[in-house]
Design goal:
This protein is 0% helix and 48% strand. The chain has no helices and 9 strands. The radius of gyration is 15 Å and the shape is globular. This is Protein yippee-like. GO terms for molecular function: metal ion binding. Keywords: Metal-binding, Zinc. Belongs to the yippee family.
Length: 123
């Protein structure tokens, strides 16, 4: 396994052609399909965040207990595979039954993403 800060740009995969996506605002690596969006009303470390079903081109940091607005969760920070920018975190374990829906989901910081709409222009 590669370290969090090692060069992994060559491992970035190009995915989701012709689909609306979210991309890294630093290096433009594709991070998630817009269809994977669960909620826009989450708070990240640096402002608003998106709760996502899945994401790609990310690498996980180490698991840690973190006090969040809804209690102490077990999370792993996630980093862009292309540029090592911290984009948010992955919910490993939630504190109680009311929060369990977050387990296995990603919180991605809105300010660190670019919305790509994959529009087609008619010739």
């Amino acid at each position: 396994m590669t370290g969090i800060h090692s060069d992994t740009k060559a491992q970035v995969v190009s995915t989701y052609h012709d689909h609306p996506t979210f991309s890294c605002s630093t290096c433009a690596a594709t991070i998630a399909l817009q269809d994977e969006l669960i909620s826009k009303s989450f708070s990240g470390r640096d402002g608003r965040g998106y709760l996502m079903h899945s994401a790609t081109n990310l690498k996980m940091g180490k698991k840690e207990e973190r006090g969040l607005l809804t209690g102490t969760h077990t999370v792993s920070d996630v980093y862009c595979l292309g540029c090592n920018e911290r984009l948010g975190w992955y919910y490993v374990k939630a504190p109680d039954n009311a929060q369990k829906y977050k387990e296995g989901k990603y919180l991605l910081e809105r300010e660190k993403l670019v919305k790509e709409n994959a529009w087609k222009l008619d010739d």
